[in-house]
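Troubleshooting: if your tokenizer reports a length mismatch, compare your output against this known-good record of 268 residues.
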Amino acid sequence: MSVVKWRGMSQTLIPPLPSVPAASAGSGLASPTFSPLYQQIKALILQSLQSGEWKPGELIPSEVELALRYKVSQGTVRKAIDELSAENLVVRRQGKGTFVATHHEAKVQFRFLKLMPDNGDAHQAENRIIEVKRLRSPAEVARALDVKAGDSVVYIKRVQSFESVPIILEEIWLPGALFKGLTAERLAEYKGPMYGLFETEFGTQMIHATEKLKAALADDVVAATLHVATGTPVLSVERVAFTYGERPVELRRAIYLTAEHHYHNELS
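Known-good structure output:
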């Protein structure tokens, strides 16, 4: 197997620190923590999203209906949905209601594809699958996906092109248990976004991701695949994507050519 060497990229993932409840003064007991009512309603709505009560792309109950369901005010429900909308988990449509976000919508797709052309609008990439195989998870991949070393993972290697020019080389690892039946043939024949396929056929929706970016130089493998000279400056990106419940379900390492593209992000 030919594996891209990701120059200078750290493979060490630092796990989040466990939360420790505050102790009551002199009591030695943990103090209960309380969240605002709208946060509690948000958590209940999230439970329904995670359980699949409302599928991606479906209309969820109105604010009035949810207020009756949870026995709270409509304003409390609205505040909860406002946060879910800001997190791109639901989409408000004027005059139609609120829908579960889906990766089949262009707006959602470009949340995760941040490479934009210097001139012109963003457009869909053309995908070429190089390799798909099942293998035993290497230790660093297992840590990122929160699985055991040696567990089955699906490995995908692909090139994304814009206007027939190869721009992105990716290696992707997915938990094998979640993506049974995922093959190179299925990926090649599917014309929509990869995350849309994961959502529709494997019931796994990517909610958010963390990324590490670093300047790098194209090695021989990258150069040959992207048709550039060895040593060409590139952008190296490592992403871990999560589904509901902060469960990591994808490790992706990508090399971007940025001679005519840039990495675009919005901070708020």
